[in-house]
Write a structure and sequence with these properties.
alpha/beta, Arc Repressor Mutant, subunit A, D-Maltodextrin-Binding Protein, domain 2, 3 domains, five-stranded mixed beta sheet, three-stranded antiparallel beta sheet, 10 helices, 14 strands, WH_DNA-bd_sf, LysR family transcriptional regulator, LysR_HTH_N, DNA-binding transcription factor activity, sequence-specific DNA binding
Length: 293
């Protein structure tokens, strides 16, 4: 028997909860639909459906089998369309999410470029400083900064971000300049609530990763606000370098402990396995990786 065809027909029968409606949908004879399901059951040696003259019910084994073949059939559909789609304009909708600062500084210009190249693709973006559940909230792609926990998601590293510790000269004149990371415990720190580390700032000491517990009166998920407070002499910040570098050049901020600052944190694009063959998604991911390499 054609096993793949049998899977397609069984899925349609289960969705329609009817042999006749599945046959109509698939433009097949009722007898052909019934035969395929029967042969599939015989091949699997398991009962997929309970049939009576009045009702049709998917068995527990059938529900489990249906769950497993859904992803297979989705992938087959995508593979069959890849060659055709590669010759056509990209279409569809991408739903993506990223931390606010990375979205604003890095992702927005890439989105503009991508939409200029592929005007038939729609993009729904969500930039905010919390981790979005791709599966539960229905997103195709997310940006994650830092080491990733184990999950069933696919990850592709596209860049890295280095944190820099800095303060204004006026703050250092008043409170002194820390010479070692542990001295930060005695300073006013402006705390970014986006990273997992928050009040335990990561550093490197003697080639080992350490963390220093810091305190402060200002907590915010807005790194630009924290930087502006630092510029006003109100404390020390530990932020991604692109927030700090322009002000180091002007002398408005002074970099602290450059020899102990954390090594670069990876930036990963993550997406569910069933999205990996989506042509628009794949093209967008490849473009991001190419521009940031």
């Amino acid at each position: 028997m054609d096993k793949l065809r049998g899977m397609v027909i069984f899925r349609e029968v289960a969705r329609k909860n009817s042999f006749s409606k599945a046959a109509e949908s698939l433009q097949l004879a009722n007898s052909a639909v019934s035969r395929y399901v029967t042969e599939l059951e015989q091949w699997l040696n398991v009962k997929l459906l309970y049939r009576t003259t009045r009702s049709l019910t998917v068995t527990e084994e059938g529900k489990l089998y249906l769950e497993k073949i859904e992803d297979i059939l989705d992938r087959v559909d995508l593979l069959e369309n890849l060659a055709v789609k590669s010759q056509q304009e990209l279409r569809g909708t991408l739903r993506l999410t990223a931390p606010s600062f990375w979205g604003a500084f890095v992702l927005k210009p890439l989105m503009v470029e991508f939409m200029s190249l592929h005007p038939k693709v729609k993009i729904h973006s969500l930039f905010l400083n919390r981790k979005v559940s791709l599966i539960e909230e229905g997103y195709d792609l997310a940006v994650r900064i830092g080491n990733l926990p184990s999950s069933g998601l696919i990850a592709r590293k596209v860049s890295s971000i280095k944190l820099k510790l800095a303060a204004a000269p006026s703050y250092l004149e008043q409170y002194g300049t820390p010479e070692q990371a542990y001295e930060l415990r005695h300073h006013e720190c402006l705390i970014d609530t986006v990273p997992d580390h928050q009040t335990k700032w990561p550093f490197v000491e003697d080639k080992k990763n350490i963390s220093v517990a810091v305190e402060g009166k200002m907590f915010s998920n807005d790194p630009e606000l924290l930087r502006d407070l630092a510029l006003s002499g109100l404390g020390i910040v530990y932020l991604p370098e692109f927030f700090i570098d322009p002000y180091l050049k002007t002398g408005e901020l002074v970099e602290l402990l450059p020899h102990q600052s954390q090594t670069a944190a990876p930036v990963n694009l993550i997406f569910p396995p069933n999205k990996q063959m989506n042509p628009a998604l794949r093209t967008f991911i490849d473009m991001i990786a190419d521009r940031l390499k």
